[in-house]
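Closing statement on the zinc ion sub-project.
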Amino acid sequence: MNYIVFDLEWNQAPFGHGRSNPKIPFEILEIGAVKLNAHRKTIDEFHETIKPLVYREMNKQTQKIVHLDMKELKDSKTFSPVARHFLEWCGSDYIFVTWGPSDIFELQRNLDYYRIQYDFPKPLLYYDLQKLYSLAEDDGKRRPALQEAVEAMGIPETKQFHGAYEDAWYTAEVMKKLNIKPVLEYKSVDYYHLPDSKDEEIRLHFKTYDKYVSMAYDSKEEALQDKAVTAIRCTKCGMPVIRRMNWFASSTGNMYYALIQCPIHGNVKGKIRIRKTRGDKIFIVKTIKPATDQDVEDLKARKEAVREKRHKRVEKEKAARRRRKGKAQGQSGKKDGSVKQTDQVQSSTK
Ligand SMILES: [Zn+2]
């Protein structure tokens, strides 16, 4: 199996978000890719610029980053032939590698906009090298810029950054140098095409955590009614175990946390993230992983902080209600007062 390491440059509505076409908020202007074999040796390269058909002028913010020139792009091919060529070039036995999750998403959105057929597997698993780099070299949570990784790995900076070909090339170089074996199981799931039904829901089991990606729901409330969403079991033995903390919401309401205890394998924590779909629905990404004593303390503190925040909010609302009530009474009193005042004013003018 080959690795297709690719990178895209794209433009967006030049005159602000209001002029954006919601079907294609980001129009791809350049595709760059490096094909690596299973031993991570470069076997081919791909580079094409694209003549834009949606946004004919460059967004000012984009222009600051991307080095593409609209005048030069007018001589390029349009997206459809370039994309077809790219998909053909990828071959049939490959896995995508990108720096961050957005390129895979925007590639599919552009393919759909131009109604180009593609037969990516479902679910589409890929390597987010930014994540793998973080897992191998950092804390696994931070998402460093490509240039930071290139510098940290001592890769000679012979090319300019923020070009599709150049960034794909740098990403491939990071992949070659990275101690990849220990992190190679951590594939990412593409969220562009979500599960259409309960049967298609995604459950991945990694060495250090379990991941679940749900189908789409109309609302958070509907999702949280679903037993599959709130199920939490020991990642090692799969036993449903003692609940130490039921699911509780973060103060923003976008995250939920829970804690269980397996008599054999110890504490296990769950995290539910509420995410928006491309439409106006939501879906759930749940991760379950063993919890350290520190994790348990952190969760307790988080729950307490949420409770305190809610308590403060309730108190504030109560106070506001009291004020409104007082004001309502005060207003009627004030009315009397103002009448008096007018009398006074009148009397003083007299
Ligand atoms: Zn267990």
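The CA atoms of residues 163 and 185 lie 29 Å apart. With this model delivered, the sub-project is considered complete and its resources will be redirected to Aim 3.
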